[in-house]
Amino acid sequence: MDPARAAATDATGAPREVLIADDHPLFRDALTRAVLGALPGTVVHDAASVPALLALIEAHPQAELLLMDLHMPGARGFSALAHIRGQHPGLPIVVVSAHEEVAVVRRALAHGASGYLAKSAAVEDIGAAVRAVLEGELWVPASVADARAELKPDEAAVAARLAELTPQQFRVLGMIAEGLLNKQIAYELGVSEATIKAHMTAIMRKLGVSNRTQVALAASQLALDQTPLPAIPEDD
Q1: Which DSSP state fits 121?
Q2: Distance from chain centroid for Cα 40
Q3: Closest alpha carbon to 167 in 89, 232, 80
Q4: pTM of the prediction?
Q5: For the chain, how many structural domains are there in total?
Q6: For 9, which DSSP code?
Q7: Cβ(96)–Cβ(67) under 8 Å?
Q8: Measured between alpha carbons, how far is 40 from 58 in angstroms, rounded to an integer?
Q9: DSSP-H helix ranges across 88-192
Q10: CATH number of the domain enclosing 194
């Protein structure tokens, strides 16, 4: 078999499937081109938000790789990475981010990413990273001499709890962190307020907290920075 074709097919001979998640259309297109350049014939699916990404993962369980940004609608910092890593442990994830700080790279890997690429990376490096991670290797920028790191206990605990949320509960969590009320969340998701209240009860139980503010504060443990949260109303 032609090496290029072999690289673009899975063990059954079907085309490889790769997922890309970034809220910037031009960068999604650039990543798609880089993946297709490295693995001709690969089928690429993309999403512009975390809710769309979660739906994409469910629709394409055979996907072999996910390239995702840390900043997208529906996520704060490493929250989406932690959730997806817990829900889909068999899906390798390469974080592609504008953040090039060593500390951010180490935290991403500690949260379970299989690779990390800066958005300034050359097309050749993106292709090399994709091939390496598909072969089971870890990929980090050359500037990161030692990628080993351990999460702070509080951050690790929140990450583990986020992994237990269902995709719908995670969507609700993101909207709570944005300061939306139950009725607003219900409208956005097309469900009843009673359903949202049930989700809230489950989220608080899984996170080990007792109110909406504490839910948002728990999620903020996975933020990249310490920017203040919006006011979180205590909904009835």
Answers
A1: -
A2: 25
A3: 80
A4: 0.83
A5: 2
A6: B
A7: yes
A8: 24
A9: 102-110, 123-134, 153-162, 167-177, 182-189
A10: 1.10.10.10
The mean pLDDT value of the chain amounts to: 87
Residue 199 structural domain = 153-222
My answer on whether 54 and 104 are in the same domain is yes
User: Is residue 229 one of the residues assigned to a domain?
Assistant: no
Alpha carbons within 13 A on the beta-carbon side of 73:
7
**Residues β-bridged to residue 67:** 20, 94
**Location of structure tokens 């300061």:** 179
Q: Residue 234 domain-assigned?
A: no
- The residue assigned the tokens 């996907």 is 63
Domain membership of residue 141 (yes or no) is: no
CB 222 within 8 A of CB 155: yes
Whether 235 is covered by a domain: the verdict is no
Q: In this structure, what token pair is assigned to residue 175? A: 């909207």
More confident residue, 201 or 232: 201
Claim to verify: residue 98 and residue 203 sit in the same structural domain: no
**pLDDT tens per residue, range 68-118:** 999 888 877 899 999 999 999 999 999 999 998 888 999 999 999 999 999
Query: Which amino acid appears at position 220 of this protein?
Result: S
φ and ψ of 210, to 5 deg:
-125, -5
Helix and strand totals (H; E) in the chain: 11, 5
Q: What angle do CA 56, 58, 61 make, to 5 degrees?
A: 100
Virtual torsion, Cα 227, 230, 231, 236, nearest 10 deg:
-130
- The whole-number pLDDT of residue 227 equals 54
